[in-house]
């Protein structure tokens, strides 16, 4: 099969059957266009003529390009190539998948960015206190920071998940449930929302058990929750990028800086492995230096 036709078939597959976004499909199109052009330079125009050696040579060529290609871009490029050949083999358009031995480059570990406690307080104080949506937004922000829950977990909460007073039942990845304590500030904000705002929002739409509702009474979406955080960050005059995960990172960082055990933080975050949680210990180096400077007899 001609490579151009193979690429078109694959792009239709990921767009229509897998439902990938136009932005993602466009990125795959650019990557695979470069791949097809490289193969053409090496005398290959048909997908059945691609060998594992050619795929490996293409990956090595891109990895040594000047100026250097970012590891994230290389990883996406290789994902595009693997996806194409896997699709062609699965559809019977290629006898074998020549990309099975292709391994993505190791990407540098990025430390999570956390807000300071002062920045968090400014963010939480940003929503208006007397409007219906302001009460909702404040409750949402307080609960995100108080529990370290993912935004997807927060918008899936039902009112009954708060039935136990000072703890919250969270359904995480793989439908695993965990119990997370809720501090007094978050509880007060949620109580104010439930008493003074949610009944009015609920009357605007169909009955739903979901805790957080949109302006028309429908369950609040992840995208809307993200916009709430962005609006609060602008109101708080926070120049750093603030996302739902920023509050999760800040939750973990502040707990560890306050002396919490990493395995307790692991449980609160719902991480399957403590290795995932330990990335947050790197952002507490300043706290470690302070303890060392004040505790070791020959630190100064």
Q: What key attributes describe this structure?
A:
300 residues, mainly alpha, two-stranded antiparallel ribbon, 2 strands, Tyrosine recombinase XerD, CB, DNA integration
Kindly state the percentage of residues in helix. Answer: 55-70%
**Morphology call:** globular
Strand composition percent: under 5%
Main β-sheet, spatial strand arrangement: 1-2
Cα gyration radius (Å):
25 Å
Q: Total helix count?
A: 14
Mean pLDDT reading: 86
Largest sheet: 2 strands, antiparallel
**Which structural category do the helix and sheet elements fall into?**
mainly alpha
Segments where pLDDT lies below 50 for 5+ residues? none
User: H/E series, N to C?
Assistant: HHHHHHHEEHHHHHHH
Termini Cα gap: 71 Å
> How many β-strands, per DSSP?
2
Family: Belongs to the 'phage' integrase family. XerD subfamily.
Pfam family, one: Phage_integrase
Protein name: Tyrosine recombinase XerD
Keywords: Cell cycle, Cell division, Chromosome partition, Cytoplasm, DNA integration, DNA recombination, DNA-binding
Describe this structure in words.
The protein is mostly helical and about 300 residues long. It has 14 helices and two strands; from the N terminus they run H-H-H-H-H-H-H-E-E-H-H-H-H-H-H-H. The protein has helices at about 5-15, 20-40, 50-65, 70-90, 115-125, 130-145, 150-155, 185-195, 200-205, 220-235, 245-255, 260-270, 275, 285-295, and strands spanning about 165-170, 175-180. The chain has a two-stranded antiparallel sheet. Helix 2 (about 20-40) crosses helix 4 (about 70-90), helix 3 (about 50-65) packs antiparallel against helix 4 and helix 6 packs across helix 11. The termini are far apart.
């Amino acid at each position: 099969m001609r490579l151009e036709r193979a690429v078109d078939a694959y792009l239709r597959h990921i767009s229509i059957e897998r439902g990938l976004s136009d932005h993602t499909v466009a990125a795959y199109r650019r990557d695979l266009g470069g791949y097809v052009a490289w193969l053409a330079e090496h005398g290959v125009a048909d997908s059945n003529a691609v060998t594992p050696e050619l795929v490996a040579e293409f990956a090595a060529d891109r990895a040594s390009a000047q100026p250097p290609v970012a590891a994230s871009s290389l990883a996406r490029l290789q994902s595009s190539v693997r996806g194409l050949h896997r699709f062609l083999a699965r559809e019977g358009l290629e006898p074998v998948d020549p990309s099975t031995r292709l391994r993505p480059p190791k990407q540098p570990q990025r430390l999570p960015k956390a807000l300071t406690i002062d920045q968090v307080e400014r963010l939480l104080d940003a929503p208006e206190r007397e409007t219906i949506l302001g009460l909702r937004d404040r409750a949402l922000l307080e609960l995100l920071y108080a529990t370290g829950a993912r935004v997807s977990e927060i918008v899936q909460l039902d009112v009954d998940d708060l039935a136990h007073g000072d703890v919250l039942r969270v359904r995480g990845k793989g439908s695993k449930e965990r119990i997370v304590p809720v501090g007094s500030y978050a509880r007060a904000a949620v109580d104010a929302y439930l008493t003074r705002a949610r009944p009015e929002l609920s009357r605007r739409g169909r009955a739903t058990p979901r805790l957080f509702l949109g302006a028309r009474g429908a369950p609040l979406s992840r995208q809307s929750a993200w916009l709430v955080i962005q609006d609060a960050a602008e109101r708080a005059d926070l120049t750093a990028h603030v996302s739902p995960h920023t509050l999760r990172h800040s939750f973990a960082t502040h707990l560890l800086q306050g002396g919490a055990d990493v395995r307790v933080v692991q449980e609160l975050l719902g991480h399957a492995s403590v290795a995932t949680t330990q990335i947050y210990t790197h952002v507490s180096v300043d706290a470690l230096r302070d303890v060392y400077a004040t505790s070791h007899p020959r630190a100064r």
